[in-house]
Fold tRNA (guanine-N(1)-)-methyltransferase.
Amino acid sequence: MSWHATCLTLFPGMFPGPLGESLAGRALRDRIWRLEARDIRTHGLGRHRTVDDTPFGGGAGMVMRPDVVDAAIAEAMPEGDARPLIYLTPRGRLLDQPLVRELSAGPGVVLLCGRYEGVDQRVIEHRAMQEVSLGDFVLSGGEMAALTLLDACVRLLPGVMGAAESGVEESHSAGLLEYPHYTRPAEWQGRAVPPVLLSGHHAEVARWRRGEMEAATRERRPDLWTRHLVAREGAAA
Ligand code: SAM
């Protein structure tokens, strides 16, 4: 059974978008994963297929109606569908590599893409949705967030990345940022490649890379570095 992604959206034409290209596109054609974009508006009300209404309590913008969203979910997720239902929202927990790994190891995902001011809170609670954010910024809709989450998951599915592209040592795989990369020419614009990388000494290269990973994480992401130190101390205790 291929990994199954369903996106509930008002803009189904945004899918597969960039996921039809490169690694994810090839994997889609090879049926390693399956993508369905379902139009929430087919569950809209009345002649105009209305999906939203004004917010109780006043304020700007519109809110997606719970009954419409719930009907779209009911159709997309038949009884027994074990996939997690995720609402993409800036109010959610931040997407990170451990969550990506967890999702890609499962049967797939159902992603609810919000628009306007977002989705009525009651359907989020009624359907026990996981709320996931891409970062501390606001997008105009959940579709780009869904595409990004899917890209991160799909590249980890067995058979998607070749050995050459393997994600084993990349950023966040060990809770650290990755070391810097260099390729030919060995000298460019007066800048030389670090000599250790030309030494052919594998243990030295590995030591240098580890040092660079730690230095980059310490300098650029003190939050990750602190978490790494706590985990290291926990493992040593
Ligand atoms: N009023 C909402 C707020 O302030 O939290 C923002 C609504 S935004 C204009 C419309 C939709 O874009 C959201 O319902 C959500 O699905 C999506 N979205 C916006 N920013 C996002 C983020 N950082 N991560 C994930 N989804 C996001």
